[in-house]
From TrEMBL:
Pathway: Cofactor biosynthesis; NAD(+) biosynthesis; deamido-NAD(+) from nicotinate D-ribonucleotide: step 1/1. Pfam families: CTP_transf_like (PF01467). GO terms for molecular function: ATP binding; nicotinate-nucleotide adenylyltransferase activity. Catalyzes the reversible adenylation of nicotinate mononucleotide (NaMN) to nicotinic acid adenine dinucleotide (NaAD). Keywords: ATP-binding, NAD, Nucleotide-binding, Nucleotidyltransferase, Pyridine nucleotide biosynthesis, Transferase. This is Probable nicotinate-nucleotide adenylyltransferase. It is an enzyme of class 2 (transferase). One of its GO terms (biological process) is NAD+ biosynthetic process. It catalyses: nicotinate beta-D-ribonucleotide + ATP + H(+) = deamido-NAD(+) + diphosphate. Transmembrane segments: none annotated. Residues 8-189 form the Cytidyltransferase-like domain.
């Protein structure tokens, strides 16, 4: 019998916010995942250097996940000085988990950029990809660049049983409770001295205040 799939949520988490939690909770509920591995990026490729350090972002994720037994942290990218390439992380996880299905969770915005990722074609042999539609970032298949569009058409499935029937290789989309929250908007609000109460778990909010993060001075 196939083992139950493990969800993988990588992110810069600068800072982690409620939409990340919603994404992971909805993935568990809708895709039948019993566990989601959260992987903060140590040196995220393809974006400016984060404002908070890798250790601080890891600490905020740990605070956010308190009380969610189905969520666990993988700190391997934070502990490494190498660029946080997802292909390398999935190769490591594949070596640990054998033939167990792995499901990489991505917001639709992240999926649209996938063909710019390091050795992106190898990702499909290592994990399934589950795309969550994010406010303002619906999946627009026609806007995918040529090679990614081809892979999308070849691999997409409307049947979630593919996530358990094979270890990797399917692309599915799933609905999440839409929350119009982004870390960049949170950083901008904090720098402008505006309220962000409802956008983050309280312990993360306290951590940001205690460590004077994102205040712009
Ligand atoms: N509001 C949201 N709804 C759905 N998915 C989201 C949302 N916010 C982030 N994600 C997804 O979570 C993952 C990690 O995101 P990330 O840590 O970059 O947060 P972010 O809010 O997108 O940050 P930033 O605004 O700094 O780019 C990505 O796959 C991203 O698409
Ligand atoms: O492997 C890559 O080349 C690559 C390029 C861009 C993003 N990623 C990963 O995608 C995840 C979300 O990235 P971000 O920048 O939206 O936080 C995070 O785990 C990154 O390490 C990975």
């Amino acid at each position: 019998m196939t083992e139950q799939p493990i969800g993988i949520l990588g992110g810069t988490f600068d800072p982690v916010h409620r939409a990340h939690l919603q994404l992971a909770e909805d993935a568990c509920a809708n895709l039948g995942l019993v566990q989601v591995l959260w992987i903060p990026a140590g040196n995220p490729p393809h974006r400016d250097r984060p404002q908070a350090s890798a250790e601080q972002r890891l600490a905020m994720v740990a605070l956010a996940l308190n009380g969610y037994p189905q969520f666990t942290i993988d700190d391997s990218e934070v502990r490494s000085s190498a660029p946080s390439y997802t292909v390398a992380t999935l190769q490591r996880l594949r070596a640990i988990h054998g033939a167990r299905p792995l499901v990489l969770l991505l917001g639709a915005d992240a999926f649209h950029g996938l063909s710019k990722w390091h050795r992106w074609r190898e990702l499909f042999a290592l994990a399934h990809i589950a795309i969550a539609t994010r406010p303002g970032y619906a999946l627009d298949a026609q806007a995918l660049d040529g090679k990614l569009h081809e892979e999308y058409l070849r691999r997409r499935s409307g049947d979630y049983s593919c996530l358990t029937a094979q270890a990797a290789g399917c692309i599915i989309t799933f609905a999440i409770t839409p929350l119009d929250i982004s870390a960049s908007a949170i950083r901008a609000r904090l720098a402008a001295g505006q309220e962000i109460q409802d956008l983050l778990p309280k312990p993360v909010l306290d951590y940001i205040a205690n460590n004077h993060l994102y205040s712009g001075h």
